[in-house]
């Protein structure tokens, strides 16, 4: 399991932290979408420096049936492939509102 960043829960229901890759270190905001529409809308939008670079969805795990946030990012600095990650709790670090961004490679 490779952590590629760290975020904390914000008071408005989103997350704020950093995405940390070898060529990229960017502050990110994961903002909840309050006015969703369509068949399969995202639950979050991901921003860095005022630009939207991805989205997130709340999914339910198959094994334990617990909810988690799955992220998908795409930007020129990341290359031609999209970057996928899940938010994973940081047990014992900075309280219950802290999460690692866990890299989830796609084929």
UniProtKB/TrEMBL annotation:
Organism superkingdom: Bacteria
Database matches in Pfam families: DUF736
Protein name: DUF736 domain-containing protein
Organism: Bradyrhizobium nitroreducens
Taxonomic path: Bacteria, Pseudomonadati, Pseudomonadota, Alphaproteobacteria, Hyphomicrobiales
């Amino acid at each position: 399991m490779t952590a590629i960043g760290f975020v904390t829960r914000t008071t408005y229901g989103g997350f704020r932290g950093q995405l940390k890759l070898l060529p990229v270190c960017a502050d990110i905001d994961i903002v909840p979408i309050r006015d969703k529409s369509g068949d399969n809308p995202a639950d979050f939008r991901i921003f860095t420096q005022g630009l939207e670079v991805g989205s997130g969805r709340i999914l339910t795990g198959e094994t334990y049936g617990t909810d988690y946030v799955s992220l998908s990012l795409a930007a020129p600095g990341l290359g031609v492939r999209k970057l996928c990650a899940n938010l994973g709790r940081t047990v014992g670090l900075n309280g219950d509102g802290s999460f690692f961004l866990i890299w989830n490679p796609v084929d």
